[in-house]
């Protein structure tokens, strides 16, 4: 490979996550811009650093970037989510073709080789494609307005994530933190109390909650939970009240002008503990292009009702925890994990000790002829946390068929990036198959939307929390009483 660092403005190394952890040269570690899709992005500062790249890195991984000196410098990573072939309808393919045409039109793009499309250095538009592969790309945008236009133009199964202007810390999960998760894994045994607690999760209550969030019951009036929409504020207020009624202490965490805030709720450990176990979902949603309605019944109303019903059951049973417990409903997930990035950074900044973090995103859908399932992420996250979830699933929700998914990059990624042990729970083994993904028809009352599956996965999230945080029943309550507490 011939590289002349004097020509392009920057060299972007786009490396598979598995190529780089844990051993990368310091010159790369100091020029890390985050994880996008299944890949880590670095800028290569000079040719001596280039020489130090691990030899597992293949040639196509290093991409010269040509940015106009006086043109847009803010980079946005765009990519297609991992989707099942059944979702590649002619309408969708046409949407993608339109989008690519739009990106290429009047944007002064050169085609130096077959696959990669690079800006050629001439005068640029406010939105310029600077790098492209079959299902991802990097776009330079002039300002927030241009970023907003880009996000409204994206095909439905595509996502955009801003690449930060300055490098971010490269923080692998410390060995000691992984060791703590391993300890939980090897000491894991069936616990009748845990079973009694998680079995009290109610499908009927979940149905009520999801019908409220989607306004299928006609009482909330929430048309959309898009982070910019008024409905997301209504949903945020309602969630905060529900969690508080369940005995948690909650606060709003605003993170960016114009966005609905994160809802951060907490049960303090009964006696002071430095450690926190965190479970989450995202309550913002996205609808079809050009339509206001964004009910997000599956994405991610399902993960939101999972953590909400865990809180309800904590209240019913009166349990207390030995470690601190946080339940977080994030916003801004659909615009590039913005809410969770802000919160994970805040936690890192205060030196928080997160034992583990488990994000629930899209729990409800499987094809009508498929069994209930649980997918864990193939690449992003801590494998030991995923293994813990798998083993807990076998004990408390044996009805689930468990396997890995290529779907990636929900809010657990923000915690992974800050060096916290984390994983995601997903509805399927394999890619996204929900025909209502990012669609205004993402309601709970439809074929394939399975609240029993949501309950089964919720039990896994809850049981993992109970095993990781440790808990006590109120005095005088024993395992037989748990069944009556609902
Ligand atoms: C997890 O479960 C598998 C399958 O039951 C088992 O073989 C493995 O030993 C378990 N892992 C640990 C660390 O206990
Ligand atoms: C994290 O744990 C360490 C060691 O137990 C402790 O010194 C520190 O105060 C903890 N951090 C927080 C924010 O509780
Ligand atoms: Zn989602």
Automatic annotation (TrEMBL):
Residues in Peptidase M28 domain copies: 262-447
EC category: hydrolase
E.C. code: 3.4.-.-
Biological-process GO terms, alphabetical: proteolysis
Membrane-spanning intervals of the chain: none
Keywords carried by this UniProt record: Hydrolase, Metal-binding, Protease, Zinc
Necessary cofactors: Zn(2+)
Any Pfam family the entry gives: Peptidase_M28
Molecular functions (GO terms): metal ion binding; metalloexopeptidase activity
SUPFAM superfamilies: Zn-dependent exopeptidases
Similarity section: Belongs to the peptidase M28 family. M28B subfamily.
Designated name of the protein: Peptide hydrolase
Species of origin: Pisolithus tinctorius Marx 270
């Amino acid at each position: 490979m011939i590289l002349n660092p004097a020509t392009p403005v920057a060299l972007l190394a786009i490396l598979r996550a598995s190529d780089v952890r844990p051993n990368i040269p310091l010159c790369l570690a100091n020029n890390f811009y985050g994880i996008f899709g299944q890949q880590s992005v670095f800028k290569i500062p000079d040719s001596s650093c280039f020489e130090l790249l691990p030899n597992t890195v293949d040639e196509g991984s290093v991409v010269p970037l040509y940015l106009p000196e006086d043109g847009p410098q803010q980079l946005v990573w765009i990519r297609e989510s991992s989707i099942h072939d059944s979702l590649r309808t002619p309408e969708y393919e046409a949407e993608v073709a339109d989008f690519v045409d739009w990106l290429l039109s009047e944007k002064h793009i050169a085609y130096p080789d077959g696959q990669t499309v690079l800006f050629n250095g001439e005068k640029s538009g406010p939105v310029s494609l600077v790098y492209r592969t079959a299902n991802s790309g990097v776009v330079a945008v002039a300002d927030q307005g241009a970023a907003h236009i880009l996000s409204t133009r994206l095909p439905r199964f595509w996502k955009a994530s801003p690449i930060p202007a300055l490098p971010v810390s490269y923080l692998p999960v410390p060995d000691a933190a992984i060791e703590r998760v391993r300890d939980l894994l090897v000491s894991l045994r069936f616990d009748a109390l845990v079973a009694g607690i998680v079995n009290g999760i109610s499908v009927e209550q979940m149905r009520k909650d999801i019908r409220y969030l989607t306004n299928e019951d006609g009482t909330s009036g929430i048309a959309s939970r898009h982070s910019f929409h008024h409905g997301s504020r209504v949903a945020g207020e309602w969630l905060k009240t529900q969690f508080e009624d369940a005995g948690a202490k909650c606060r709003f965490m605003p993170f960016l002008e114009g966005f609905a805030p994160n809802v951060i709720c907490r049960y303090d450990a009964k006696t002071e503990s430095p450690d926190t176990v965190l479970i989450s979902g995202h309550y913002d949603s996205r609808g079809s292009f050009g339509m206001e309605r964004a009910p997000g019944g599956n994405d991610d109303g399902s993960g939101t009702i999972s953590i909400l019903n865990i809180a309800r059951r904590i209240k019913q049973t009166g349990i207390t925890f030995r470690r601190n417990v946080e339940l977080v409903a994030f916003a801004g997930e659909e615009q590039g994990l913005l809410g969770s990035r802000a919160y994970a950074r805040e936690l890192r900044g205060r030196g928080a000790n997160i034992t583990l973090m488990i994000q629930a995103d899209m729990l409800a859908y499987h094809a009508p002829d498929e069994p209930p399932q649980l997918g864990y992420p193939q690449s992003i996250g801590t494998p030991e946390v995923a293994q813990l979830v798998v083993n807990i699933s076998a004990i408390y929700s044996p009805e689930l068929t468990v396997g890995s998914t290529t779907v990636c990059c929900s809010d657990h990624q923000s915690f992974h990036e800050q060096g916290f042990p984390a994983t995601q729970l997903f509805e399927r083994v394999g890619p996204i198959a929900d025909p209502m993904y990012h669609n205004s028809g993402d309601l709970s009352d439809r074929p394939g939307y399975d609240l029993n599956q949501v309950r089964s996965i919720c039990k896994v999230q809850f049981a993992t929390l109970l095993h990781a945080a440790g808990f006590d029943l109120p005095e005088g309550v024993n395992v037989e009483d748990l069944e009556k507490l609902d």
